Amino acid sequence: MDHLIVTVFAPDKPGQVEQIAACVADHGGNWLESRMTHMAGQFAGILKIGVPAESHDGLRSALQALSADGIRVQFAEGGVETSAAWKPINMELVGADRPGIVRDVTRLLTEQGVNVERLVTNVEPAPMSSEPLFRAHALLGLPLTLSLDVLQRCLETLADDLMVELTLKADEQV
User: Fold this and answer.
1) What is the extent of the structural domain holding 54?
2) Phi and psi at residue 82, in whole multiples of 5°?
3) 93 and 144 fall within a common domain
4) pTM higher than 0.85 for the full model?
């Protein structure tokens, strides 16, 4: 089995996931993993498909043909996943919204060698004031050589500068 990593995006409407799934199934593919979302009237997703080598080219062509229905696709060949040399950490951040929060946090994480495995963000009205409130939930890959305490201290300094609440905890589910 070959693996295809496919990103899809289109104006959102019912039936798009079914069209993609039918295309995969019609070419003997196996839908292995996906992350899909609706945002600002758009549908976007990334999926990992297992496909027999002899069906690889046909599936790629069929997925590209979905552009006739407004579904655009891009491909990346599936790489070999290495065994984890990191420990999973959950991070939650809440604070007044302002430009640059994601940049500042991810810069510090990169400087510490931390990988962002998953990141979900949104802005919503604060309960009392209705001021924009930024929320981020992330799964981080903490290098085995970096202690959670060291990362916590680095992030606390940044959180004070950004005036946000930031919590880290080990991920028990991974």
Assistant:
1) 2-77
2) -85, 160
3) yes
4) no
